[in-house]
Amino acid sequence: MVRIVGGVTLVALAAGLVMAFGVAPREVTQGNVQRIMYVHVPSVWVAYLAFAVVLVASIVYLARRVDGADRLAHASAEVGVLFTGLTIATGSIWGKPTWGTWWTWDARLTSVSILFVMYLGYLLLRGMIEDPDQGARYAAVLGIVAAFNIPLVHFSVYWWRTLHQPPSLMKPGPGTMPGVIVAALMVNFVAFSLLYVYFVAKRVNLLRREAEAAA
Amino acid sequence: MPDSWGFVLAAYGLAAVVLIAYWRRLVRRERALGAEHRSTVRRA
């Protein structure tokens, strides 16, 4: 099953590249550098998704002590950290030609960096505690607390004056982007979401096998 | 605004390198666990 998801993901990622470079037009204001959006925005979407899964799985673990929920939270946090790092890096690369700087302590950039550090801390906490049950319990609490930062990241562009533009897609009301750009973005959303499912499925499987080997 | 293709390539290149590296790490760990499991079975 995981292999099939992997194959479909590869096709979806190829379709995403075709949409980003072959179908989506050159943006009028920013030029071709705007094509970074097709990797930057889906990356932050996957990060949000991953940390939302950590939140739900952590609640389930604390309520029912299901090992599978703990493994899902662990795997999802790891993949979420990966995609948050990618979001920060691609955003920085996009920022240089458009804003004239690699980095600025703007509300969105700062809040997403805090999100990154919090979940990095989550992974470190898991690695530091030797007793697996205790580690899972502490991590679940941190997984719930850290999730409060997700709305802070998303709405930071509305709550504070920032250099980062407000969301063009993940917002209420009618969209302002041309249909073909939305379509290209959607294909990449699907591709990155599939990649998230593939990575998490593989990581959960590994965590289960590691637990079995250690027992 | 100039097209700055170098930045586009850097962003996509970095994404490709990071994602492939993570995938390879998972695959290597899978293989290592498989090898450990086979050697345990052989010893038993």
Structure summary:
The complex is a heterodimer of chains A (215) and B (44). Chain A has helices at residues 2-23, 37-64, 67-99, 107-128, 132-146, 149-159, 179-214.
Characteristics:
heterodimer, A: 215 residues, mainly alpha, 7 helices, B: 44 residues, 1 helix, rod-shaped
Walk me through this protein's architecture.
The complex is a heterodimer of chains A (215) and B (44). With 215 residues, chain A is mainly α. Chain A has helices at residues 2-23, 37-64, 67-99, 107-128, 132-146, 149-159, 179-214. Chain A has one domain (2-26, 37-165, 178-214). Chain A has seven helices and no strands. In chain A, α3 packs across α5. Chain B is rod-shaped. Chains A and B meet through α2, α3 and α7 of A and α1 of B.
Instruction: Please describe the biggest sheet of chain A, giving its number of strands, its sense, and whether it closes into a barrel.
Output: none
β-strand number of chain B: 0
Which band does the percent of strand residues of chain B land in? under 5%
- Please report the total strand number of chain A as a whole number: 0
Q: How are the SSEs ordered, and which strands pair?
A:
The complex is a heterodimer of chains A (215) and B (44).
Chain A: H1 2-23, H2 37-64, H3 67-99, H4 107-128, H5 132-146, H6 149-159, H7 179-214
Chain B: H1 5-43
